[in-house]
Design goal:
With 104 residues, the chain is mainly alpha-helical. The chain contains 3 helices and 2 strands. Helix 2 packs across helix 3.
């Protein structure tokens, strides 16, 4: 009985100390990742990548609409009207908010 109690006490202490150390390391990694993401060079690269993705999306959409399949889809009326021609901003997984894009 005494051995089980000591084991459970040690297990509880290890859990508390381990989770505190783990949380601190997580916060450190998160802060470094946030700093990196907010760096102007990274934001500029993200803006360029998003602009290229938007361009490719628009070109692909135009090619599809001008193809026979696109014409067939438009005549049958099975498509829903598209409300935007731009890709949506990705969700920032570090803060849980949408990315505001680059500041260039």
């Amino acid at each position: 009985m005494r051995g089980k109690l000591l084991f459970l006490t040690g297990l509880g202490a290890g859990f508390v100390l381990g989770s505190r150390a783990g949380r601190e390391k997580y916060e450190e990694i998160r802060a470094n990742a946030q700093k990196l993401w907010e760096h102007p060079t990274v934001q500029e690269a993200a803006g360029v990548a998003q602009a290229q993705a938007n361009k490719l999306y628009s070109e692909g959409k135009d090619k599809l609409q001008s193809s026979k399949l696109g014409e067939k889809l438009n005549t049958t009326g099975t498509t829903t009207p598209d409300t935007t021609d731009e890709l949506l901003a990705p969700t920032d997984t570090l803060s849980g908010t949408k990315s505001t894009g680059s500041t260039y």
